[in-house]
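Reviewer 2 asked us to include a model.

Predict the structure of this chain.
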Amino acid sequence: MKKLILTAIAAVAMATAVLAQDITITAVHGRALQITSATNATSNVTFRYEWTRNGTPIAGATEAFYTVPANLANGLNQVFRRRAILTSQCTGSNMAETNTVTVNFKCGNGLGTVVTNTSAETDLCWADRNVGAVGTFTATAHEYSAFFQWDRFSPWPATGAGTPSGWNPATDPVQQAATGWSNNGQGPCPAGWRVPTVAEFNTIRAASGLGLAWRTANSGYGNAVNGAFVGHRAASCGFLASQNMFGCIFLPAGGHRSPNGTLTTTPSWVQGSLGWYWASTQSTAANGNTLHIGSGGDTNHPLDKLSGLNVRCVFVP
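Predicted model (structure tokens):
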């Protein structure tokens, strides 16, 4: 019997990676992914192919390649392997296997993360960093970022005492009349992203069963500012080379600007102690819903729409 030899490659968009050993790749959540082989098995006896995902055979996957359909392109640490199984009598082993391809399906063109652990196609894709200016994200995932008033598109600085020049007045009937965020909820998010609803924020709160791990700056997790890791792997996530951010996001505790434009000075609400994030759904005509996070946990705490808060976005599939 000739020995069955398999070498696999994983194709993500136009990129390929030749397998010399087990590899881990990142692919796009919700987008079909083809995993194929550089060489087919050869033998003087008959054989068939079989693909497995996390050790379980994939029904109908009997070709030399396997395409993960879009509705199954989800989850983290998904391990794919191809086998060539002999189907006629011979001596010796009747199976040969490729090395494994471990796929982490990410989202939002690589700038997002699915923080839940259901591996469902409908899981929300959360941006891995805050909005830094209208239409752009911050340079890193762990820095204090610009504040925005409700449905306004002027970014206000994350630092600096006093009221910034041009701050919207304390009485603004147009602003308070806005029940949500403009552009179908996009607000200041980049194209293809939008401000999350309060119900969507509730899905990542600790009360939903997800983890929340408060980390002070430079305490062994790579974050340069205080904040919280949120997600089903929150306790083990980090930015250091020995860590990763699969399955969680980091929410900086940037504080907020009060309705008069000044940075809040309430001791438990100051920058570094608490982070405030707008939801796209209002609480009342005067107040918007928010997510706020701190060392003691997280909650929805409505704030005056004239306040300046951070914005975190979700991807529009």
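Confidence is low (pLDDT under 50) at residues 1-20. The CA atoms of residues 77 and 104 lie 5 Å apart. We have added this to the supplementary material.
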